[in-house]
Amino acid sequence: MERTLVLIKPDAIQRGLVGEIVSRFEKKGLKLVGMKMMSLDEAILKEHYAHLADKPFFKSLSGFMMSSPAIAMCWEGLECVNAVRLLCGITKARSAEAGSIRGDLAMSVSCNVVHASDSVENAAKEIKRFFKTEDLFDYAKSEYEFVYGEDERA
Ligand code: UDP
Ligand code: MG
After folding, report:
1. Is residue 1 scored above 80 in pLDDT?
2. Rounded to two decimals, what is the model's pTM?
3. From the alpha carbon of 51, which atom of ligand 1 is closest?
4. Is 57's C-beta closer than 6 angstroms to any atom of ligand 1?
5. Which residues pair with 76 in a beta bridge?
6. Ligand 1 mutation pick, 86, 91, 107, max ligand atoms within 8 A of CB
7. Residue 95: what pLDDT?
8. Does residue 154 have a pLDDT over 90?
9. Please, what are the domains in the chain?
């Protein structure tokens, strides 16, 4: 099954939203396969936000992401890259759909509580960026019998 990378951003940790955010992914039926709190540095942010390096807000974005720790998570599930992006909602949180994480929990474009990989290809790169192989776990989840149909579990 697919895996994707989610970051709980510093604003969410400061605002006490970690449990709420983790709970959204759990309740959806996704499997948590890796989780780690970390201080991000300039090197990792340059790589992670390379597509935004020439934007005027890049410096403040890096500053924000380094302002206090973040939590990296790897979630697994059927077509979960797309499912997780939908759960998170669009970048501009105050316009994000109600019911999504950003739509329910944030108001800002920059302080939008989570990051999620935007494609299967980027998910693979981002998971490697934040996790060593031994920090990711393969295990059976008994609820899968009821989260997926038989054909989807194969
Ligand atoms: N961002 C920002 N100002 C902008 C656009 C983006 O501060 O005008 C920040 C915001 O935190 C966003 C991150 O840069 O989540 C990455 O931007 P991207 O376009 O990849 O959005 P995402 O994939 O996070 O929705
Ligand atoms: Mg993005």
Report:
1. yes
2. 0.98
3. 20
4. yes
5. 3, 31
6. 91
7. 98
8. no
9. 2-132 (3.30.70.141)
